Amino acid sequence: MKYDIIVIGSGPGGYIAAVRASQLGKKVAIIEKYAALGGTCLNVGCIPSKALLDSSHHYYDAVNHFDTHGISIEKPRLDFTKMIARKATVVEQTSGGIKYLMDKNNVDVFEGLGSFADATHVKITKKDGTSETIEGTNIIIATGSKPSSLPFISIDKERIITSTEALKLTEVPKHLLVIGGGVIGLELGSVYKRLGADVTVIEYASKITPMMDADVSKELQKVLKKQGMKFAVGHGVTSVERNGNEVVVKATDKKGKAVEFTGDYCLVAVGRKPYTEGLDLENAGVVLNDKNQVTINEHLQTSTSNIYAIGDVVEGAMLAHKAEEEGVVVAEFLAGQKPHIDYNLIPGVVYTWPEVAAVGKTEQELKDAGIDYKAGKFSMRALGRSRASGDIDGFVKVLADTTTDEILGVHIVGARAADLIMEAAVAMEYRASAEDLARICHGHPTYSEAIKEAAKAAWDGMPLNA
């Protein structure tokens, strides 16, 4: 069978590319090696983790905060099996939704491992060992990523686990050790901390969320520490060993002193790496860089002109929404349009509580670039809406160019930060100034008023409610 476009991988980037290409009149096929569509994000990443984050948040609030609101109940009982089952249902429903989209948009779905026979033919190897080959004028590689580890760690998927296993445990750990203070480690650490586990996060860098603004990292660690999470930053892990139902992590602290941590589970959350195994890229002349990422140009085109690559398999932030945008860009480019992505305006989000979200440059990045900037900051504690809901932790920080007042970066720690950040992204897309944002009338009382106030603080240094 011959197609205009073949997409290998059905994650956020792949399935969105397939939908958009079909909308633009292309004959499209998508290949997925697993029975369920949706890739890592839907099956063992974004969606199941958010389901558990929401469920654990409800439980934590019932145990710790209901009484503050005048709601008296008997102590809630955790049914962890039911919580995990609900997560599985959410995943199943969402995967079914993608199958519906494929049918609706007349995208042919092939189940099996896709590999290149040559630059225009993809071999699909099925579970039963049989195979078939389809032809594509253009091919999009959207195979995503998988969890990374450290060379000396042996992942047994029982006690020494990755995020995949952490999403389907059969019990709440007594003491969960988390290696890595990035997004995945903090989110899953939050889930189990809320459910009653002791959680210790061990991070090599001098701060958690190392790639985020320093103020954000400091505030988030302070808040999570207040919630009971323990942190060992500036610690380099040297070994991870399992003894029965006990896991021992040895590390060296920032002064070079050897330290030891003991728990019943260890989550290895040191990032993710591109997944290119089994693609037989050499048969199509597709080149990888030294990080095992597919090499691309500004049009997401690989070294073989009719083959494109998107999402976690190429350079850049490993974010589902980044992959989606790249999928749309490739589909539209192949349809003769002239799409673009501003990679500076792809928001980053951490779904702890409070949430963390950011778009644009950090203060350190502006300093390193020699850009003269001004900063405005406003505390969530000063908002009427925050006091009404009890979510008083966090702040909004707006960074703007000293000369032009153009907004260069926005960083939020607070309730619903993941949703609030899009106001900043839209403003920055249209190159708004801090004054522009400060002069927009915001509903009262809302969390979004903190953005208005922080923008005013950056603009003229005089927020109205601080």
Summarize this structure as a short list of keywords or feature phrases.
466 residues, alpha/beta, FAD/NAD(P)-binding domain, Enolase-like, domain 1, five-stranded parallel beta sheet, 13 helices
Give an account of the 3D structure.
- 47% of the residues are buried.
- The protein has 466 residues and is of the alpha/beta class.
- Helix 1 runs parallel beside helix 8, helix 3 runs antiparallel to helix 4 and helix 3 packs parallel to helix 6.
- The chain folds into three domains: 215 residues, FAD/NAD(P)-binding domain (3-Layer(bba) Sandwich); 111 residues, FAD/NAD(P)-binding domain (3-Layer(bba) Sandwich); 116 residues, FAD/NAD-linked reductase, C-terminal dimerisation domain (Enolase-like, domain 1), CATH 3.30.390.30.
- 32% of the residues lie in helices and 25% in strands.
- Strands 1, 2, 3, 4, 5, 6 and 17 form a seven-stranded mixed sheet that branches.
- Strand 5 and strand 6 form a beta hairpin.
Concise description?
The protein is an alpha/beta fold and 466 residues long. It contains 13 helices and 22 strands.
The helix/strand class is alpha/beta
CATH architecture tag of the largest domain: 3-Layer(bba) Sandwich
Q: Could you state the CATH homologous superfamily of the largest domain?
A: FAD/NAD(P)-binding domain
Shape: globular
CATH class membership of the largest domain: Alpha Beta
What distance lies between the first and last C-alpha atoms, to the nearest angstrom? 66 Å
Identify low-pLDDT runs.
Answer: none
Fill in the CATH topology of the largest domain.
FAD/NAD(P)-binding domain
**Largest sheet: number of strands, sense, barrel closure:** 7 strands, mixed
Mean pLDDT across all amino acids: 98
Number of helices: 13
Domain module count: 3
Give a count of the beta strands, DSSP E runs of length 2 or more.
22
Radius of gyration: 23 Å
Q: Per DSSP, what share of the residues sits in E-state strands of 2 or more residues? A: 25-35%
Helix percent reads 25-40%
